[in-house]
Amino acid sequence: MSSLNELAELIAKRVVEQYGIKISIIAIYGSIATGKQSDYSDLDMYAITSLENQMKWSFIFQDKAVDIWSMDWEEAEEIASAKKDKLKIWCVAAHIFVNCKVLYYRNEQDLERFNSLKKSIQKIKEDTEGNFMRAMSQFNMDYSIERVKLAKVKNDILTARWALWGLINNICATLSWLNNVYYSKN
């Protein structure tokens, strides 16, 4: 196997062979999809499926990490449209739809539905007023700081780590909304 792109094509073919019509879309994202790969790049793939139990495969191939996972259309659409419970992850998940390379689509309707995810993300990026409101509803500084203080009082390093991680995620998500951007892996 000479490239991660070839490996991605092979994996996509095997996934379709195994799951058939339950696979709507298979895409790669990250540096391989954008053509910015380096010697340290891994292969990141996802599928949009109608599987009852979504798949998650992780393995090493020729010293390269390979991940393929799946979601259903409902989750993909909730992420792309920044539904209330997906606000925090939108800032880091939107790029998997926008900066990807589709390797397989079951039919034209699925491809159009997938492309509508990208359009939803673009509309959200352009919605400055709405993004300000999303940022304000997202960010809860008092709660985050109180969790850090509580960890300090308890002298609990594990709780402190999680509290600070939550605070950092909150800040990053809020900045994403305020600046009308999403973060990408590369």
From the helix content, strand content and strand pairing, which structural class follows? alpha+beta
Low-pLDDT residue intervals, each spanning 5 or more residues:
none
Major pleated sheet? 5 strands, mixed
Shape: globular
Cα(first) to Cα(last) distance is: 24 Å
Mean pLDDT, all residues: 89
The CATH architecture of the largest domain is 2-Layer Sandwich
Number of helices, where a helix is a run of at least 4 consecutive DSSP H or I residues: 9
The whole-angstrom Rg is 19 Å
Write structural notes for this entry:
- By secondary structure, the chain is an alpha+beta fold.
- The protein has 2 domains: 4-126, Beta Polymerase, domain 2 (2-Layer Sandwich), CATH 3.30.460; 129-178.
- The protein contains 9 helices and 5 strands, in the order H-E-H-E-E-E-H-H-H-E-H-H-H-H.
- A hairpin with a 2-residue loop joins strand 3 and strand 4 (64-72).
- Helix 4 crosses helix 9 (157-178) and helix 7 packs antiparallel against helix 9 (157-178).
- The longest helix has 22 residues, at 157-178.
List descriptors:
186 residues; alpha+beta; five-stranded mixed beta sheet; 5 strands; globular
Explain briefly what this protein structure is:
The chain has 186 residues and is an alpha+beta fold. The chain is built from nine helices and five strands, in the order αβαβββαααβαααα. Strand 3 (56-61) and strand 4 form a beta hairpin.
Which helices and strands occur, and which strands form pairs?
Elements: H1 4-19, E1 23-29, H2 31-34, E2 43-49, E3 56-61, E4 64-72, H3 73-80, H4 87-93, H5 95-98, E5 100-105, H6 108-126, H7 128-138, H8 141-154, H9 157-178
Parallel strand pairs: 2-4
Antiparallel strand pairs: 1-2, 1-5, 3-4
